[in-house]
Design goal:
Elements lengths: L1 H18 L21 E5 L3 E5 L7 E2 L20 E4 L7 E18 L8 E8 L2 H4 L17 E6 L4 E16 L5 E13 L7 E4 L2 H17 L16 H14 L5 H11 L11 H18 L2 H5 L2 H12 L25 H25 L3 H14 L10 H9 L5 H9 L11 H10 L3 H17 L55 H9 L2 E3 L6 E4 L8 E8 L2 E9 L5 E6 L5 E4 L2
Parallel strand pairs: 12-16
Antiparallel strand pairs: 1-9, 2-5, 3-4, 4-9, 5-8, 5-9, 6-7, 6-8, 10-13, 11-12, 13-14, 14-15
Helix pairs in contact: 3-4, 3-15, 4-6, 4-15, 6-9, 8-9, 8-10, 9-10, 9-11, 11-12, 11-13, 12-13, 13-14, 14-15
């Protein structure tokens, strides 16, 4: 009996160990359901520069450069090489730290001994821009603590360590609060929280700006791959299904298969019983269908797709029933929404939803066929045929024109005329991806490449290390960089602009829906087109525009594909591909 008990105990320990990331033996009696393993890691980064000090007086701020040195996170009794902040009755000490690029996480502060062994009060302000970190929460420029606390007061321990904050930031301002107070700081390090995953996809061309744009889009999405796939690491830290489509396209091109995608898709499904729409928006349940189609094509996971069948088929039938006698979408009981910049244009929204419904039902027909449901597939195809009989006028809306083109309702050349009007004016960071896709469908690859340079490029010029929730090319006039304090006479690109729900500093400067150039460059410039589920057939069809070469990699379930496309003296492009066994390659020059 004792031997049997020992065996059972050992087996339980093995199961518990694998499920709980090697918790200490004292937890052996815990319930497994109470244990959750984090999917992210933490790394500690020292700031790269001190951007601002409240005073140059060494009596108030001394040895601030010490904070730029590497740390070990451990307080000690040496009392040497410390940053010391002192307040008098009149002079207050404060510093602004720059960590060099956008991060997700918090701040670790390591302290020395304090007067009387008492805690020392400080104010901490995180900012995605230098000016946001210097701002106050008020009604002037929209600074908030929404979704993530970024402005608060805390007490630091005597000879200890405190970790605080969970937000998106690049800059941190630290202010000593009380009169006649003193703070001795050994370290002030960023706590960088992220998924420790490799960048399997890559992109390198003869244009360094395009290369940087590709990587910035990839990094933006990487930051938002937390326990779930968020849209923004400072604000909108939620699973917004529509916003996910550019993100999941980026993930497929850069990271390959990641459990954050099905985990987030399933969360949206499970909290949205039909006939409700995901996130309360009519179009967002459509994006759920489109993401599943693209994700299945990339990963070929039929078992996972089958798990969606009951919900998917019911959702498709729900949409089909909302086409009226005039073959027009008549979608109700949810917010009619494409993106924020188009949200006040009811005609554009109708035109966009007409096109998007056709896209959704086309994808739905494909998925129903895979799931051996010919009845639903036929119903979807018949509904798309009806929708094509009624093509609304997109007006000047680039969002609506893009969707009408991608759905096959509008000739690509006609849509491209709308998209090309005034260049990248009236682009948006979310729907910019679909504008690029529609330009490609019209064969305007050079125009799309130029749009990427002209729209996403200026964000980098302004100091961005991640792409923003929105951007308007008209903001550029006399604008300051986000990594400097706003000079007199300049416009604050962060605090002075924005609209709708992202006015001023509430504006997110790390928003995954803005990553569209990354998958677009992989698909149309590097030339990778997935033609069969699981990437078992890839068509390599590069469009170099004015580039001399492009090379890169593409992750598939069967391994990494390597591609190099080189323009020859004749003007033709030489395509060189190395692919794992099991992948058929079709080259189109």
């Amino acid at each position: 009996m004792n031997k049997l008990k020992t065996i059972i105990t050992l087996l339980a320990a093995i199961v518990f160990k694998s499920a709980s990331a090697q918790l200490p033996p004292v937890f052996a009696g815990a319930h497994l359901k109470d244990v959750q393993k984090e999917e992210t890691v933490r790394r500690y980064l020292s700031p790269v520069r001190i951007l601002w000090q409240s005073t140059k007086d060494a009596a108030s701020i001394n040895n601030a450069e010490r904070l730029l040195k590497p740390g070990d996170g451990q307080a000690n009794l040496s009392g040497k090489d410390l940053c010391i902040l002192r307040n008098s009755n009149k002079v207050k000490a404060g510093i602004l730290l720059d960590f060099g690029r956008e991060l997700h996480g918090g701040l670790q502060l390591v302290t020395d001994q304090s007067r009387g062994g008492k805690p020392v009060r400080v104010r901490i302000r995180f900012g995605e821009s230098a000016s946001e970190a210097m701002s106050n929460i008020d009604t002037v420029k929209g600074a908030t603590n929404d979704h993530a606390m970024r402005d608060f007061e805390i007490a630091l321990p005597w000879l200890g360590k405190l970790e605080v904050g969970n937000t998106g930031f690049r800059f941190v301002r630290i202010d000593l609060l009380d009169d006649n107070a003193e703070l001795k700081l050994k370290e002030a390090r960023a706590i960088f929280v992220f998924r420790d995953i490799p960048y399997l996809g890559s992109f390198k061309s003869s244009d360094t700006l395009l290369n940087k744009i590709w990587m910035t889009g990839a990094y933006t999405v990487h930051l938002n791959m937390q326990d779930y796939l968020w849209d923004g690491i400072k604000r909108d830290r939620l699973v917004w299904v529509g916003d996910m489509h550019p993100e999941t396209s980026t993930i497929a091109a850069v990271f390959g298969n990641s459990n954050v995608v099905p985990k987030s898709l399933d969360l949206a499904r499970d909290i949205t019983p039909l006939p409700e729409y995901m996130n309360g928006m009519i179009s967002y349940s459509m994006w759920w269908v489109l993401i599943h189609h693209d994700w299945y094509m990339h990963n070929g996971n039929l078992n996972y797709l089958k798990q969606q069948q009951t919900y998917l088929i019911a959702l498709l039938n729900q949409y089909i029933k909302q086409i009226d006698a005039n073959n027009s979408e008549d979608l109700k009981n949810g917010q009619r929404f494409l993106d924020w910049p188009s949200s006040t244009d009811a005609k554009a929204i109708h035109a966009g939803l007409q096109g998007m419904l056709a896209m959704t039902l086309t994808a739905g027909a494909d998925l129903a066929t895979v799931l051996h449901d010919p009845v639903t597939a036929a119903k979807c195809k018949a509904a798309v045929a009806r929708l094509k009989k009624n093509v609304p006028d997109p007006g000047k809306s680039k969002q609506a024109a893009a969707l009408l083109s991608l759905s096959g309702l509008m000739p690509p050349a006609r849509a491209n005329a709308v998209l090309s009007d005034r260049g990248v004016h009236n682009y948006s960071t979310f729907f910019g991806y679909y504008m690029l896709l529609a330009k490609a469908k019209a064969g305007d690859y050079k125009g799309a490449i130029d749009a990427i340079r002209d729209y996403w490029g200026p964000m980098l010029t302004l100091g961005a290390t991640t792409f923003w929730e929105d951007f308007d090319i008209d903001w550029l006039s006399n604008a300051s960089r986000i990594d400097e304090l706003v000079p007199d006479g300049k416009k604050d690109i962060h605090g002075d602009y924005g609209a709708f729900c992202y006015k001023g500093f509430r504006h997110s400067l790390s928003h995954g829906w803005a990553s569209g150039p990354t998958p677009w460059l992989t698909q149309y410039v590097l030339g990778v087109n997935v033609m069969a589920p699981g990437c078992k057939v890839l068509k390599i069809e590069p469009h170099l525009g004015d580039l001399k070469f492009v090379e890169g990699t593409f992750p598939t379930p069967l391994g990494i594909v390597k591609i190099k496309n080189t323009r020859l003296a004749s003007g033709k492009v030489n395509i060189a591909v190395q692919a794992p066994k099991g992948i058929a390659i079709i080259k189109v020059n």
